[in-house]
Amino acid sequence: MTADSIKEALKQVKYPGFSRDIVSFGLVRSAAFADGTAKVSVAITTSDPKVPTMLKTEIEHCLRAQPGVKDVIVELAVSAAKAAPKPGTANLGGGTTPAGLKHSVAIASGKGGVGKSTFAVNLACALAQILEKSGRPGRVGLMDCDIYGPSVPLMMGLGGARPEVDGENLVPLERHGVKVMSMGFLVDDNTPVVWRGPMIMKTIQQFVQNVKWGDLDVLLIDLPPGTGDAQLSLVQTLPLDGAILVTTPQPAATNVARKGGLMFQKVNVPLLGVAENMSWFEDATGTRQHLFGEGGGATIAEMLGTSLLGQVPLFPEIRAGGDSGQPVTVSAVSGKPAKAFREIATTLLNRLKVPHAG
Ligand SMILES: Nc1ncnc2c1ncn2[C@@H]1O[C@H](COP(=O)(O)OP(=O)(O)OP(=O)(O)O)[C@@H](O)[C@H]1O
User: Fold this and answer.
1) 19, 91, 111, 140: which one has the fewest Cβ atoms less than 10 Å from its Cβ?
2) More confident residue, 255 or 229
3) Whole-angstrom Cα distance, residue 66 to residue 111?
């Protein structure tokens, strides 16, 4: 055995209550092997006294089964979770999953203007439609963390709306079957907000913990564009199941999108796939014009070891839907643009193993 093969073996150990293993969660701090003794050091954040005991037993059991291992020493550093855990809550690396939230997925892009918010809004509406048909209405949330230019309120037809306050909590607004919370609801359009890192972190934590999301199958999180410190902090603050990277097809966009993907890999957030937006434009004769080049989405997906979730063509109706607050998935349910988003929504639900009738 070597330090590496110990870590490899520990990939079989799942964090209690999760389908992910302790290595991919980034909880294994060190591993060593000498004279038949495997020594590992693991750091976790939890307030549940059962978790450390369960983990220790699992790790010992796993390593004792490895060839040449006679003894196992597990050093477990346990720090208390920041927030008091609610029933069904697990805490990892500082993030707290609210009870009732099944899956959270970040929508990210390497740079601005690729249609990330448009994609997030339409994906949320398509998910809500599929889940409603499956007998699960009102189980999709959309959290707009694009603090620098929140466009979700306008795109969802909620411009100027204000959420209700219930005690210490905010009640998300509901539109097109989606529960929505956005920084745009809380700040005045005419007052530019100068955000500093700690303020961003605090706001995002409150968006997760002090918003009455209720029972959700999927919460989509629209991240600010780019791969700076703000994004990295957000990703570490939020308990994420995975991320979708939105890109346009031109080869020039691949490098910057790749950086976005690598950021998630650095913090052990799995990539659920790449979504290519503005893939082509269908002219009057039905011929596809590749205005922004071709193949970028598939190339990035391959580079990052993930797959292409789907492609969304350029449609004037998509832009018009965003501007009017009636996303195309809602205003023209049976049209081609809506179908493109629904296909991606179905693939995502399958990937997250959410049962549906879509
Ligand atoms: N597939 C599409 N077809 C037609 N128009 C689109 C499409 N996707 C996005 N757009 C339009 O492109 C513009 C930019 O989209 P959007 O605001 O969603 O980008 P973004 O990546 O979220 O930008 P930022 O992150 O800088 O806010 C919008 O006017 C939107 O309506």
Assistant:
1) 19
2) 255
3) 45
Give which of 308, 316, 318, 324 is closest to 339, Cα–Cα: 318
Please give the CATH number for the structural domain made up of 3-92: 3.30.300.130
Q: Where are the domains of the chain?
A: 3-92, 97-352
Comparison of pLDDT for 93 and 153, the residue scoring more: 153
Residue 198 has pLDDT above 70, yes or no: no
Is 110 a known ligand-binding residue?
yes
Which tokens go with 153?
């309120």
Q: Which whole-number Å values give the CA distances from 12 to 20, 37, 109, in the listed order?
A: 9, 19, 32
The residue type of 123 is L
Say how far apart CA 100 and CA 8 lie, in whole Å: 32
Looking at ligand 1, which residue's alpha carbon is closest to its atom 13?
A: 115
Looking at residue 20, its amino acid is R
Say which amino acid occupies 138.
Answer: G
Instruction: Give CA–CA dist 211/204, Å, rounded.
Output: 10
**Alpha carbon 346 to chain centroid, angstroms:** 16
CA 314 to chain centre: 24
Topology given in CATH for the domain delimited by 97-352: Rossmann fold (3.40.50)
Residue nearest to atom 16 of ligand 1 (CA): 115
Amino acid symbol at 21: D
What are the residues whose beta carbons fall under 8 Å from the beta carbon of 115, sequence distance 6 or more? Answer: 246, 248, 277, 278, 312, 318
82 is in an annotated binding site: no
Task: Report the pocket of ligand 1 as residue ranges, CB < 6 Å.
Answer: 109, 112-118, 146, 149, 151, 225, 277-278, 312, 314-315, 318-319, 322
Residue 314 CA, ligand 1 centroid: distance in Å:
10
The residue assigned the tokens 């020594």 is 39
